[in-house]
Amino acid sequence: MSIELTRNFSIIAHIDHGKTTLSDRLLEFTQTVSDREAQAQHLDSMDLERERGITIKSHPVTMYYPAKDGKTYKLNLLDTPGHVDFSYEVSRSLAACEGAILIVDAAQGVEAQTMANVNLAMSQELTIVPVLNKIDLPAADTDKCRAQLEDLLAIPGDEAIPASAKAGIGIEDILEAVVTKMPAPKDAEDKLFRASVFDSVYDAYRGVISYVRVMSGQVKKGDRIKLFATNSTYEVKETGCFTPKMTKTEGLTAGDVGYLIANMKSASEVKIGDTITNHKHPCKDPLPGFKEIKPMVFSGIYPVESTDYEALKTAMGKLQINDAAFSFSTESSTALGFGFRCGFLGLLHMEIIQERLRREFDMDVISTYPSVIYEVTKKDGSEVIIDNPSYFPDPSFIEEIREPMVRVYIMVPGDYIGDIMQLLMEKRGELENTETIDGDRVLLTGVVPLSEILVDFNDRLKSSTKGYGSMDYEHSGYRAANMVKMDMMIAAEPVEAFSTIVHREKAEHYGRELAKKLKEVIPNQMFVVAIQATIGGKIVARESISAMSKNVTAKCYGGDISRKRKLLEKQKKGKQKMKMFGKVNIPQEAFIKVLKTGD
Hints:
Layout: E1 6-12, H1 19-29, H2 47-52, E2 59-66, E3 72-79, H3 87-95, E4 99-105, H4 112-123, E5 127-133, H5 142-153, E6 161-162, H6 171-181, E7 194-203, E8 207-216, E9 218-220, E10 224-227, E11 233-242, E12 246-249, E13 251-253, E14 257-262, E15 275-278, E16 297-303, H7 309-322, E17 327-333, E18 337-344, H8 347-361, E19 365-367, E20 374-378, E21 383-386, E22 398-413, H9 417-426, E23 430-436, E24 441-449, H10 450-453, H11 457-464, E25 470-480, E26 483-490, E27 493-494, E28 500-503, H12 504-521, E29 529-535, E30 538-545, H13 561-581, H14 588-595
Parallel strand pairs: 1-3, 1-4, 4-5, 5-6
Antiparallel strand pairs: 2-3, 7-8, 7-15, 8-14, 9-13, 10-11, 10-15, 11-12, 11-14, 16-18, 16-19, 17-18, 20-21, 20-22, 22-24, 22-25, 23-24, 26-27, 26-28, 26-29, 29-30
Helix pairs in contact: 7-8, 12-14
């Protein structure tokens, strides 16, 4: 099929605005999927995606659509996630497209992540086709949504196509708009083969399968290809497209989105965002790559059984092929043994990776409390980056500590503006701007430390606004802060696994909470055990585990009271001696209970 009849497009929207449902209807309308094979969330292949009702991975699919002008077009769709943690998936998909369908829920209007995704699409100069979805809902207000499109996104409201993905309304109009409004891909004048790798998966039998968008030239089975990142050459074993299953083809030409299998056997051989070219006739320069993704949240992941260490390392390598934003390096802990320091884009990303390790690779893992990267300037002028409390320098050598900040965009109904401002203040944030969107909603822009929004910020936002609030965030540099390392002492012995970096103002509260939690999980000893939270030797919180009491006077039946007193004195001296030499062995279960996120 000629390149003029090809269209490459993505679907972008806020989470739960109907992207996956619309992609299901497009597959049905173009008869890419037969009625017998059709199922809800067809492109969401993971169990996790189906259970949670969210898209985690972008899924390419090729459809053929006979348009009203009498021509049959090849449409390559890349369904994208909506959650802020997976924005890197969206940017990768958009780099392989010329256009994007923007879905706005007619009942909810433009949300925070809608704006973020539109900005991504506009920065890549894509043609945007707006769609007002869920127009069949009683709460739908299309006029208000059209006004929001114009005011917030500078997209003409009258161009928006009214539709209902669930009821199948407006599907043909959307396909016609894709064909008529979106540009066809362009081939390069030199006709040299260039392809961009936008995703990869690992297959136990066929090795690494690269998902590619061919920018120019063509590739077929038997060709020798070269990767720019590693300068390695391979022979192409198979090419194909997604219908939505992997379907073998003779080759891929300019404008095509499909897959390519070469004899790549390990995870390290392919890099997402890399350029593939022909070995004999290579292009001079690589294609502009995707933005390098930097992890924002770090957590330790350890195997529960130390014998699973190598298996966990292999599993993480395979996951990294499929998820460019996930990074890991080895680390060891006195409490948990050998494991990995892992980097994630956010808490949901971290949760999904852990769940995929458990389900797809049958790994039993423990994760430590999430932390962020701090920049430390020492008094000698040297700079160090800290992502683990164990590497925190001595306070006497520190000149300044800077913590990562994020700019948050929060969209809420006007009634809840006071609650959200209070939440921002509580999280050490600053409100920068308040903008009224329409009669109902307000857009708040603020700067908050990343460590403060890690655990419960989104949950608090949702509960404060009865589910109507939405947020998006972006990295906003570093800012000096009064951060300290807090150690936990158990029976006067520091336990490295429970050390954490906290703001000095919140250290006492956090120390008290952790001490209470430890008191619940550490078993009683024969002597009183002190649990202390300390900052540089100063105790800021304390809990005590009472001693196990043995009734040493049980054998005394009556008789002189002095005999009982002697026995009790002897027991008291014994306990004091034990306190001097006794050690507390913390069971593995206690570490698991305290360190597991969310417990």
